[in-house]
Amino acid sequence: MVLCDVAWLCISRFILLDSMLLFFTVLTVFCLTKFHSERHDPFSPDWWIWLTFTGGSIGCVASVKWVGLFVTALVGLYTIEDLWEKFGDLRMRKRDYVNHWIARIAMLMVLPLCIYMMSFKLHFLILNHSGPGDAQMSSLFQANLEGNDFSKNPLEIAFGSKITLKNMGFGGGLLHSHTQTYPVGSQQQQVTCYHYKDDNNHWRVEKPWSQPKVNDEGEIEYLKDGDIIRLLHTSTNKNLHSHTVSAPLTKLNNEVSGYGNETAGDQGDHWLVEVVDDMVLGKKQHVSRVRSLTTKLRFRHVQLGCYLVAPNSILPPWGFKQIEVSCDKENNPGDPHSHWNVESHWNGRLPIGETKFYRSPFLRDFWHLNVAMMTSNNALIPDADKEDILASSPTDWPWVHLGLRMCGWGDNQTKYYLIGHPIIWWSSTASLGLCVVLICVYLIRLQRGYRDWGVGEWDHFLYVCKIAGLGWVFQYVPFLIMGRVTYIHHYLPTLYFAVLMVNHLFDHLIFKSRWLKERTKWVIFGLAA
Question: Residues 6 or more apart from 326 whose CB is under 8 A from it?
Fold first, then answer.
């Protein structure tokens, strides 16, 4: 059934993660089953081998896609049940029971985590060139990528410098503005955070309205803690501004907008620079001048006392699903979403810095990228204003109501359409319900004293039903709950457990039947094949 299903055949023709996800899902179930078969000989070489392989396959399946955590949950539930049964075994020594816990923690938790982290370490070592998605990562991490220009930037910030500001919260983007206005609130120019680099991320550091404009020929004035500044958006000549209007999503915060121009504005354009610390220089007291990449900053609105924040709230389509920027009335010094650093820096009057010698800690980069992945995944929600003809509902998948166009549909193109084999999908779905009915019937017969099973047969039957049935539930139910857009290829790992179930029941009802002759069994098998 696996070899003949056209959906699995179709997905294997594309360079996508789904084939690898399916492989490691199957491998995890296989290793778990082999480990289960060694349960009567604990701590033997084979027992350790298959426990280790199970942990290794968990690490691999989680490294391919986070959907792999669903089969990890299946292994976790099996482990909890196994340890609970051993807890009730009064013949087992306490030391052996503790060793069972230690072995599982080491091989099913520590080992997968190490493999998962190692995949990111290899990712950082191999993919070490700058690209369009750099802004997902911290500024210090980007500084070490080949092909980016941070090493050519001046190190210390001065009035008149053109800069980009990176939010230091995990998953944070670059301070951004564009000509579109808010459809609610002040209806002034939108200010957001954006995860990709373009000219709309550029701001110029200007003096407040009460002081003379920056003289490009005069003495250089470096930016330091306590300075009051204006941030002028270079593409639209709007000032970074806040007022008492509520933010569009975070209603308790003030709205941040683009207002005025290079020569006109008000006190709502003034921001006080607060240095938090510096990754190289250390505490605030040691930071005499603001540096690019390493100095952690907060911006307090002079008039309102609120702080510039970007807490990963995703704007609706009118905001292009970018991150909301607002002004938080609460003073939370430890909130990373209120921390900013200067990322890119341009000023022809300043010398080039030595930022290429700075290194970003691996654990911070690891955590940062995982949060960025989560933020991006949470943004994949259906657009109510647009119809996605490729998307499908999880309720459509078991019955093959819809397929998926996998590529272009031009007259001269090879066309691939992903859709499952109806007999395989329908029979596997029906087998899940039949399994529940059979278990209920057998439990009733056991209660009435009927002897339908030999030694160990009932436990084996129930084990396979739990692996296939709960595996299907863990793979399928989360898609009913999550709000992201879904496609039929998300069902392919789930289908594997349904196929396991239909074959398990076929074997149980036909080949292990005590009422059918051997010849009849093979005739039925031939007709089914």
Answer: 247, 249, 250, 253, 254, 255, 256, 309, 310, 311
